């Protein structure tokens, strides 16, 4: 949609002024005028941190915001990530273990000025082997409280350290949905929310605590939505295989003592599993307060991964039942789908056929999926493949927002660094079609072609420079599937299934290009 639209946007929202706001991964916020055609026109760029970059994800307007009083909330990290490199910070990489933060800002309605910039929360538990999980997207509930998901620090609940990785473990607040009661905010800000397990003093179980744990066991819920049916739905990215689960046995060397606030009366024979497999699927959860959704955390005395025996092939888990508070999932995306953004579609377009449906971004599939909640429990009762509806796009789609007045939806592409507009076709009620304008020019050579493909499809897992993230490093000389098999691994996926096959998405020529680029990264 034009060079001025370009950027790696982690959140898209439409403000009370009916303009689109895009939160860039480096902390900048761009405001776009939505033209009658649906196209975007850049109006202002807000720089809350000046020339400094902050790894930012969440962006939401306060319920009190108005067109002339633009109050926004954002989540960000004081440390960067293997997702992306910032030129101004790459030489001063901060590996602080408690680097998560939240701010409240007042934006000018007529200029690019940030009128007020308050740090509200600091020292959220943002750490892990690759610093890949964060304080994620923000939503406001029907009662006006603020909700956001805090990513986990491990693959399956216990330290998953590998060679050259720093130690990691879960924190009391990690792998949760957290709820901030704005009515309980103290006059003096920020609130330091580092808990006792990190040497802090914040107690989320205190009755007067402004930030509390709403639900647990959500490994990495990138986005969530409060539906008009009163339910909270969240997309969950599951863990890869060959990770470790915690134990409830106090005699085990892997045992971690729960928080003093937790009274555990469950079984004491839930074993630690070292090298648990297979990879777990990605899910959507219908989240209820106090529910547990399958990602273990020994500090909260949550020991069983997902459904227990049904989900792990390791003999140690034979006969292990799910946690007594495990609430299950409402939709199974399958493995390695990487569900990210999610919205409720509210427009009356298509004669209202999609109204009330949830539209979720499937980053790993480069498309969207439409699901319908209904029934007594408001669980998902049917789904529609977005590809069949014209809702497929390349470039690592990440977040989604709807213009309720027109039914248009906008998708941020993390890989191709742009925003794509999908417009409903009034005369074809069974599908949506997307418009893509100003396609980027063809790369000059095979190396540049491979670089483009890598940035659009591989960088999100393997890092901007191939140093690893949720996927392994490509530059350390240790090739899990053999250096001579790079082409086949890209084409067919990894032997253990942790990496999907790309043979249906990349041609042999494109696979050769990206293979060459990957091999050029090794130093």
How would you summarize what this structure contains?
7% of the residues lie in helices and 30% in strands.
How would you explain this protein's 3D organization?
The chain is mainly β and 523 residues long. It contains 4 helices and 27 strands. The strands form 7 sheets. Strands 5-6-7-8-12 form a 5-stranded mixed sheet, with no helix packed on it. It has a 4-stranded antiparallel sheet with strand order 1-2-3-4, with no helix packed on it. Strands 9-10-11-13 form a 4-stranded antiparallel sheet, with no helix packed on it. Helix 1 (446-457) crosses helix 4 and helix 3 (486-492) crosses helix 4 (508-521). The longest helix has 14 residues, at 508-521. It is globular and about 65 Å long. It starts with 8 loop residues before the first strand and ends with a helix.
What overall geometry do the principal axes of the alpha carbons give?
globular
Per DSSP E runs of 2 or more residues, the count of β-strands stands at 27
Main sheet overview: 5 strands, mixed
- Gyration radius, in Å: 22 Å
Determine the strand fraction and express it as a percent band. Answer: 25-35%
Q: Report the mean per-residue pLDDT as an integer.
A: 87
Helix percent reads under 10%
> How many DSSP H or I helices?
4
In quaternary terms, these chains amount to: single chain
User: Which structural class should the secondary elements be placed in?
Assistant: mainly beta
Main sheet: strand order: 5-6-7-8-12
Report the end-to-end length measured between terminal Cα atoms.
36 Å
Poorly predicted residue ranges: 90-94, 427-444
